[in-house]
Structure formats: structure tokens, C-alpha cells
Amino acid sequence: MPKSVEFPAGQVAERLGQVSILSSLSDRQLRKLAGWVKIVAYGEGETIVKRGEGGIGLFLILDGSAEVRRGGRKLARLGVGQFFGEMTLFDHQPRSADVVAAQPSKVAVLSSYEFWGFAETEPKVLRGILEEMTRRLRETNQALSE
What ranges do the domains of the chain cover? Predict the structure, then answer.
């Protein structure tokens, strides 16, 4: 069963700045956003998110690693500084894969509720996020048209 834990706020802010859709935020904004996240610990083999379930938000690996799986097949291994679930900040679609802790891990969880609460206090951050999401969509469209 996951449990809330402590993690140095400065490191949380630094790692949030590595998330592509948050990379345009200033250091001040990242420190402020770090105050909105919850740090959760997962044991090896524990499910972080389950395919088909509604998503709550973005997950950022602070310590440890996780595997993305679908139908028992390993799709990816995620390590420190990597993230998943970012689309759930903007829609509430079901998860497309399982994510399981590959070893004991600490994860920062930014729910869509906290994200939008933060965005209301810092509305200019939405521009950077939209620019990054648009860039990613263009890259996907380009790859599909080749």
C-alpha cells in the first residue's frame, strides 16, 4: 500500500523543471508548484496506476524506477526524473497502461485538481505548457505523415 513520505522540496522543484510540459516555468514557479505535489512511496511490484482506471494526474519518479506494461508486456522502464500521466492533467481519460514500481520508489504526484489550483494562481504558466504540448502534437503529426 503506497504511503505519503517526505522528499527535499528543492529536489522536487528541480525535477519538475525537467518535465517537458513544465520546463518553461521559472525557478520561483517550480518551487511554488512543488508545494502542490504529494510524495508517495511504492514498494517493489506495487501498482502505481492501472490500465483502464481513471487518471488523477501526473507522476514524476523521484527515486527508484517503474515499468510501463500492457497485457503483461513491458513497454518501457522509467527512472529518476521521468514522468507519466501528464495528459490526465487536461482530460480524465482512463489509463492506457499499467505502471508498476520496478524497485522501491518515491513518486511526486500532481493531481489535475492541484495543477489547476496552481494554474489559477499562476495563469501565465499555461502558455508554456500549451506551447510544449503543441510542439509534441506537431512532432507526432509529422511522424505519422512520413
Answer: 3-112+119-145
